[in-house]
Amino acid sequence: MVGCDDTKPQIKLKQETVIITTPDLNILTDAECSNRNPNMNAFFGDLHVHTSYSFDAVAGNLGATPEDANRFARGEEIAFFPLDSNSRPLGRLKIDRPLDFLAVTDHGEFLGEWSMCTKQESDFYNTDFCREQYRASEGSPLMMFGQIISRETPKRIVELCGETGKLCEEQAISPWTDIRHAADKANDPCKFTSFIGYEYTGSPGNSSYHRNVIFRGSSVPKSPITYIDAPLDSMLWQKLDEVCDTEQECDYLTIPHNTNLSNGRMAPYRKLPNNKKVKKDYAQHRLRREPIMEIFQHKGTSECVNGLTSVLGQPDELCDIEAIRKIGKPRVLKALSIERGQLVAGVGETEIPTEECEPKIPGNRGILGAGCIDATDFLRSSLLIGLQEEENIGVNPIKLGIIAATDNHSATPGAVKESDWNGSVSGEDTPLGRLGFGQLGLPLTTAIDSNPGGLAGVWATENTRDAIFDAMLRKEVFGTSGPRIKPRLFGGWTLDENLCANSEMVAEAYKNAVPMGSDLAPNKDLNRVPKFLAHAVRDFESSKLQSLQLIKGWLDTEGNLNNKVISIAEFPTGSDEICIIYADDNFKLNQSAYYYLRAVELPSPRWHTYDCDKIAVESRPEVCKSDDYPKIIREMAWTSPIWYQGVQN
Fold first, then answer.
1. Hey, which residues does 378 pair with through a beta bridge?
2. What separation in angstroms does the CA of 343 have from each of 138, 393, 441?
3. First vs last C-alpha separation in the chain
4. Fewer beta carbons within 10 Å, N or C terminal of the chain?
5. In a domain, 275, yes or no
6. Does a structural domain hold residue 318?
7. Nearest Cα to Cα of residue 404 among 148, 640, 164, 133
8. What is the pTM of this model?
9. Which residues are CB-contacts of 451 (< 8 A; sequence separation ≥ 6)?
10. Are both 417 and 524 inside the same structural domain?
């Protein structure tokens, strides 16, 4: 045990770098966890959750703090909806099963503005701006600040922050300190890991350019590097490198999310010169700092989309599960504006087709569920773009492992149970609200269009910050749509056909193959084909597993992008555990490829069917009676890919 709650942070200075080191309340010095496992344990967590410290969070109505989010993740009960006439929470909520790890990721952009206008002890609380604009309505901060982060060159509000914005930057230090202290206080090595983190929230053109920034330990910059400070991903990593000194034990990684709403803006090299050296430098920087992505969350799936003309392959019906956007399905947007902090409905509406983006021309309005779709908007096709770029420049700029998360805005991380979902954002605190359309009347991808979100899974030696962070760096991670399915994938050239029956299966796999997230090196025997150990164990509080599917993407000899869903194991009535050795007999030595595993449960009811059952038949909204939203879903889990780089003559 080192330090205590009221110890002041130590500020270390080195050149222009400022690192804040918070005394970690629960640091293991030499001892290892008693359940440390060299063959890795599966741990489940949530690396994307918001509290009242976020300008757009419904948690603001509850007063829920980063400490509350950590308490909820550990299995404690916290205050929840409904609210009484004085806006005090009457309800209580508790997670069905505690999480193993967490990162509270409140938006870094407006922590200062939030503190100035919501803290009654603030000198700015009673200013005209805070009173008449920020606190005019629940949706006022979202509308005001949403306009700022939708710009290519964002600037803070001069009326509150001053010409330089420095005032709001200084005011952000106090809430950032709260977030850091909450994580360090909750972190309990071997039992519960709490990371310090924040969300980098850029929405240029109202498209998603969002990332979560996760720090390894307690040494972090004095304040977040935000989209306002660094409006490009390359600038974000550069500026974080400048203020996060590894010699002072500061380390970080970034995790992009909602690529499904990005309209091609998540493509690599954004606004960089078009030359090979710059592209290689970008790719190498991204490989170091952005090892994984969020494949599934509250605002839909980012795994795949049907209908891309640039990708060859058969349609995949599971791409449509919790898909916010589909090629050919238009989006209708109503006219809205903001006047003195109030949301005002305009006249008319616009129907926007959902088409493929023009090559290398990003679109707009993905955050609103509209605009064009690019191959880089979804994992499966973006991984193919990565293979293609690797052939062009020698480095793969889209080499991403897979996790999932909730993006919960009510300080209830991991609350993903379909039969007991209580909402994530404003307007979702009642069954009728969740069955409606859009947050606060905004045409956002929430309510009936959304879902409870998913979970991040890691294979790590033990439940500590270092072990889990290292698992993320090496991409030995997976995502689930909610259930705690445990999937594994190994790839090699000499795997034993009977390995599934071996009591030392995992140890042998590590010895003779590479785990998910790795590169499969070419084999000296040119006649061999790769073999894969695919294994998954069900969540015993969810449905049984029905199938294992190996997703393969590759570049053919003509340079075409291909993908295929290969069903490698099927159990029509379900199984508790599935294991199989699969050989890719269609493997070509000179074709670059990737492989990832998808474990799929038996069909089960979607969350909205449970909400419909809570409402009297005569009062049920139309969505309960129509087939516009599927009543049955397929819960699933995805492993990170294994990559193979084709051997050229």
1. none
2. 10, 48, 8
3. 58
4. C
5. yes
6. no
7. 640
8. 0.94
9. 298, 300, 322, 481, 606, 607
10. no
Q: How far apart are CA 609 and CA 166, in angstroms?
A: 49
Q: Is the domain of 531 the same as that of 428? A: no
In-domain check, residue 442: yes
Q: How many domains does the chain have?
A: 2
| Type of residue found at 18 | V
Query: Is residue 47 in some structural domain?
Result: yes
The answer to whether 101 touches 306, Cβ cutoff 8 Å, is: no
Helix (H) or strand (E) holding 11: strand 10-14
The pLDDT of residue 340 is 57
**Cα 336 from chain centroid (whole Å):** 28
For 634, the domain range is 485-644
561-575/311-312 β-pairing? parallel
Cα–Cα distance for residue pair 649/445, rounded to 1 Å: 48
pLDDT band at 59 (very low <50, low <70, confident <90, very high): confident
Q: Where are the alpha helices (DSSP H) in 306-404?
A: 379-393
- pLDDT, average across residues 158-168: 96
Whether residues 56 and 177 share a domain: the answer is yes
User: How far is it, in rounded angstroms, from Cα 73 to Cα 99?
Assistant: 5
Residue 77 sits in the same domain as residue 119? yes
Are the CB atoms for 43 and 457 separated by under 8 Å? yes
Last residue of a domain, one of 450, 473, 496: 473
SS3 428: coil
Query: For the CA atoms of 511, 576, 48, 243, what is the dihedral angle to 10 degrees?
Result: -10
Distance CA 68, CA 143 (A): 26
Mean pLDDT of 581-588: 97
* 8 A C-beta contact, residue 401 and residue 640: yes
- Dihedral angle over CA of 441, 445, 450, 452, nearest 10: -90
User: Is residue 423 left, alpha or beta, with left meaning phi > 0 and alpha meaning psi from -120 to 50?
Assistant: left
Same domain for 403 and 503, yes or no, is no
* Same domain? 209 vs 274: yes
Q: Residue 350: what pLDDT?
A: 81
Using alpha carbons, select from 190, 42, 99, 100 the residue that is nearest to residue 506: 42
- Predicted local confidence at residue 143, as pLDDT: 86
> Which SS3 state, helix, strand or coil, does residue 430 take?
coil
Residue type, 518: S
The last residue of one of the domains, among 453, 473, 493, is 473
DSSP per position, 21-58: EPPPSS--SSPPPTT--TT-EEEEEEEEE--TTSTT-T
Q: Which pLDDT value is given to residue 446?
A: 86
- Are 436 and 552 members of one domain? no
Burial of 206-240, coded b for 16+ CB within 10 Å and e otherwise, reads bbbbbbbbbbbbbbbbbbbbbbbbbbbbbebbeeb
Residues 545 and 439 in one domain: no
CA-based nearest residue to 49, from 195, 160, 227, 172: 195
For 98, phi and psi rounded to 5 degrees?
-60, 155
Express each pLDDT in 232-288 by its tens digit: 999 999 999 999 977 788 999 999 999 999 999 999 999 999 999 999 999 999 999
